[in-house]
Amino acid sequence: MGTGLDAANVRRALRQALARVDGITPAEWTPRELRHSFVSLLSDRGLSTEEISKLVGHSSTSVTEEVYRKQIRPVVQTGAVAMDAIFKANPEA
Which SUPFAM superfamilies does the UniProt entry name for this protein (predicted)? Predict the structure, then answer.
């Protein structure tokens, strides 16, 4: 099965891979930043918090919402806009 990955080795491997990409400064990127970017891109594309939570391996959406609250804000805002539209369309609801 192997052993767990050492954080320093993971960072080193990521930066070595990024060094081959034009326009990227490898020292500016960490696995954490890559993960936050991943969540941001999924959120911007409209994936639900439930779907994002599964993809990043969280046991519940509350963990995802707490850790990535800035990245998933567009999903929350989209929901709020939809609810506003519903209630404006049905003022008696």
Answer: DNA breaking-rejoining enzymes
Longest dimension (CA), the chain: 61
Q: How far apart are CA 14 and CA 37, in angstroms?
A: 14
Ranges of the chain with pLDDT below 50: none
pLDDT of residue 43: 83
Q: What is the DSSP string of 11-48?
A: HHHHHHHHTTSTT--GGG--HHHHHHHHHHHHHHTT--
The full set of domain ranges for the chain reads 7-89
Using an 8 Å Cβ cutoff, are 64 and 52 in contact? yes
